[in-house]
Amino acid sequence: MFRQKIKLAFALFSLTATSFGGPGLTTISDVLYRVDGTPFEGSATIVGVALNAGSAASVGMPVKTRIRHGKLKVRLVNRAEGLAYYSVKYDAGKTGEFVETWAVPARPGPFGVKDVLVAATGQMQRDVRAAAVQPGAAQPDTATIPESSVIGLVSDLAARPVKGISFGPGLAAVIDSTGAIGGASGSFSNCVQVDGSSGPCGLSPTFVDEQVPSGVVNGSNTAFTTSASAAPQTSLALYRNGVLQKAGEDYTLSGNAVTFLALSVPQVGDTLLATYRGAPTAGANNAVGAQVLCSSTGGTTSSTTLTTLGSCTMPAGTLQPGDRVRIDFDYYHQNATAGFNFTVSWGSTLLLLRAAGASERFVYGWAEAGIDATGSQLSVQSWGTILVAATGVMNTSESFAAPIVLTFQGDMAATTTDTLALRNFSVVLYPRVL
Fold it and tell me: Which of 3, 191, 302, 374 is 20 to 30 A from 235, alpha carbon to alpha carbon?
């Protein structure tokens, strides 16, 4: 009986390499790869299944075939013989196993695994990747694998977020209405809300110190008011002749109305002082601290051609009227056989151009930009150990709706082995106070 079952199995699954193209048989020929791109090594156990109402039942005995260097070639009974579906269990030894389902068409083939693979929820298909191989073609150990041939890759990529139309460098990341990653536009000093919009950050509370409450101090009046309501109420510190009064024992508070209790009524000659926090109001100080836009070391050059040694890009919309920008820079000249030149540019505006002699070693400078509604007014100073101090003031109408690039450049005055280095530079933004 056992030998008869073996013969029946070989009648259903012809796994030999001869007599291809026989009636009712389909050839599956492919090269299988792991997720890391290396050829799959292991075995595959194949068994025919009958699908009934969404469930699978085994038909016939399983047959196991060895897969070496990723190469798989089998012949299976096709749809014309009434056995169309197969369960294929891959075994890679210690690296694990997984199962997939094949649907074999009623044609001799050959077909790749991706041509007969049936996607099924829950299948463990992450360790092997299939690439179709043409009949008679060489089967290399490695190959370029199209995305569609990598099991699960396309669906895995589709599950990841993608760049949205508002995505861009230098912006705060937000997730847009389509689930893509976008960027929040607005002022550099704005805050991003949970809905992805941007706007001025939350207003700061107002602080009131040592205010004299309104009301007559005559020994009988108990009603006094502060100019604003304390927020929170517990922030009110009320003093009578320098002694802190206690809420609920000395007075009660309702909004900005203070009512003294009978035993604590202010007497003629008493002094009242109130210190408290008030609710945020429009026009309150909403400034953030100084912001370092760029701070770094720069490059070096021995070229006689002007070379960019450092730069700082301020994204579009970073600057607003009322802002101020401070720029500091240090150049260093090594050796003393040739002079050098150095420049600083604000966008397309040349802010500074100076030449130094061969004996000059260190140069320092700073510049400031005061931002207004039409552009900015620029001022600059620079000097060295020998180089005399020089100053300058100018105006520019560079648009803040586009990025502004600060550029630090330099070159040697003659062919030399000397080097000129931008040793350090920084760009600091002082936002306006609203």
Answer: 191
Q: Alpha-carbon distance 401 to 385, whole Å?
A: 39
Burial profile 86-122: b = 16 or more Cβ within 10 angstroms, e = fewer: bbbbbebeeeeebebbbebeeebbbbbbbbbbeeeee
Do residues 44 and 65 lie in contact, with contact meaning Cβ atoms separated by under 8 Å?
yes
Q: Provide the pLDDT confidence category of residue 412 given band limits of 50, 70 and 90.
A: very high
Give me 301's structure tokens.
Answer: 């050059």
In one-letter notation, the amino acid at residue 57 is: A
Which of 376, 389, 258 is closest to 321 using CA atoms?
Answer: 376
pLDDT tens track for 287-309: 456 888 899 999 999 999 999 99
Question: Sheet of 340-346: strands edge to edge?
Answer: 307-314, 404-412, 340-346, 349-356
| DSSP β-ladder status, 13-14 and 25-34 | unpaired
**Per-residue model confidence (pLDDT) at position 171:** 78
- Average pLDDT, stretch 375-382? 95
CB 404 within 8 A of CB 423: no
Residue 320 corresponds to which amino acid? Answer: Q
Distances (CA, A) of 333 to 46, 310, 338, 400, 404: 75, 16, 10, 34, 28
Degrees, nearest 5: CA angle 72-73-77? 130
Cα 53 from Cα 237, distance rounded (Å): 77
List, in sequence order, every residue forming a beta bridge with 39; answer none if it has no partner: 33
Mark out the alpha helices in 97-245 (DSSP H runs).
113-116, 153-158
At 38, list the tokens.
């290396």
Sign of the Cα pseudo-torsion (50, 56, 61, 64, in order): positive
| CB burial string 252-276: b at 16+ within 10 A, e below | ebeebebebeeeebbeeeeebebbb
Q: In the prediction, which pLDDT does 137 show?
A: 35
Domains and CATH numbers, the chain: 2-157 (no CATH), 161-203 (no CATH), 206-278 (no CATH), 291-430 (2.60.120)
Above 80 in pLDDT, residue 253?
yes
Give the pLDDT band of residue 145 (cuts 50, 70, 90): low
Band the pLDDT of 197: cuts 50, 70, 90: confident
Parallel/antiparallel/unpaired status of strands 206-211 and 191-192: unpaired
Predicted TM-score (pTM) of the model is 0.41
Q: Is residue 355 within 8 Å of residue 343, measured between CB atoms?
A: no
Q: Can you tell me the distance from the alpha carbon of 94 to that of 132, in angstroms, rounded to the nearest whole number? A: 26
